[in-house]
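Page 42, continued from yesterday. The earlier attempt failed because a stray header line got pasted into the input along with the sequence. Redoing it now with the clean sequence only.
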Amino acid sequence: MREFVQRVNAHPNYSKALEWGKLITVTGSAQVAAQALGFASAILVIRMLPTQEYALYTLANTMLANMLVLADSGIGSGIMAEGGKVWQDPQKMGAVLVTGLSLRKKFAMLSLLIFLPALLYLLRHHNASWLMSVMICLSIIPTFTAGSIGSVYEALPRLRQDIFPLQKIQLSTASGRFILLILSIFALPMAFIACFVSGLAQIWTNRQLYKLSSPFANYQAKPNAEIKKRLLALSARIFPEAVYICLSGQITIWLISLFGSTQALASAGALTRLSMVVNLFTILFGALVVPRFARMTVSSIVLLKRYIQIQLGMLFFATLLIVMVWIFSDLILAILGHKYEGLNTEVVLMITGSSIYVIGQATFALCASRGWVINPAISIPVSIMTIALSAFCIGISSLKDIFLMNICVAAVYLLMNVAYGFVKIIKTRNTEERQALHK
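This time it went through. Structure tokens are written below.
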């Protein structure tokens, strides 16, 4: 037995496996706690808000997510790609972050001008008063502004793999948001109160992220024209994809908000909030895998091996999650409350579509972190055709139909991104072989 243990300890992959085991255990534990608090906050909002108010809250959160996607438009991926080259140089890293912040603020203003009027229209469409509609629109602005800036501040700690301080900040944020919700929503069970609380928590988070990253980046640096050019070049390729994601990523909510009832919108919103469970994987993936993949300077063969391992790992966890939701669907719906009982099939379909879509997004993030972005002239028409064919063949007459349609759209999105990653790695390998022949 002792000899076996010694052989295991001497294995070249042992130390790497041990390192990853510690990272996943500690990071996972903190994220489980943070996500548990986030999930508790979501359940509290679902149970406390009347159906009408929760439908409005769903609209506001959907629009907020789309605003953040458009405000990013590839800037975040560009910062990771550029920062992955200079993250050990505070002056150069500062120039990357400052340039990214400058662009992010301009994109954020554009996003506000596009989405706030759309949100106002949809709120009025679902019978919100003018006063309530304006209050909800105003309540999401602090969350949106802070979220746009915070993701830039977070880039350097992620590249440096300052996992534990990041986890501490995220856990504190989740705790603060939960406490603020308890103090406010029992007294005022209104949609705009729930939205505004998230903004207060995010503002505190930004301050902590700035303190964490500022010793390793010069935020007094001036925007760099060359970096700006490269960030805009990447953004130009990602921007159409971002617009498409705004339309298709929340297609369930969009279709129901336009063609469905307020009750159906509230049900869809409650079920999709359960996808927060998938967010645990997304956060771990973004914190541990994407930065390391961005920094890899190995051969294309090793890169291909890691890419395949990542895809298989994501598939395993997604399958496990779907099976668990199927087994415990009654318990999950009981947690949401009696207003949403009987939606067993819908909750399984929802989590299936969400899991597939999240893997597609994770694969896109992997590729974008290395500057690989599929041509939108290819991706968007393919996705639009998928949406049109799915709507024609399946229909949008019920919540179940819309969730099935979402699965089809997400599956095509996933396959397209996975295939593109393989194509780019194979091209890299061909380039390496040609360079080796010339030598």
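Notes: The CA atoms of residues 35 and 206 lie 19 Å apart.
Reminder to self: strip header lines before submitting.
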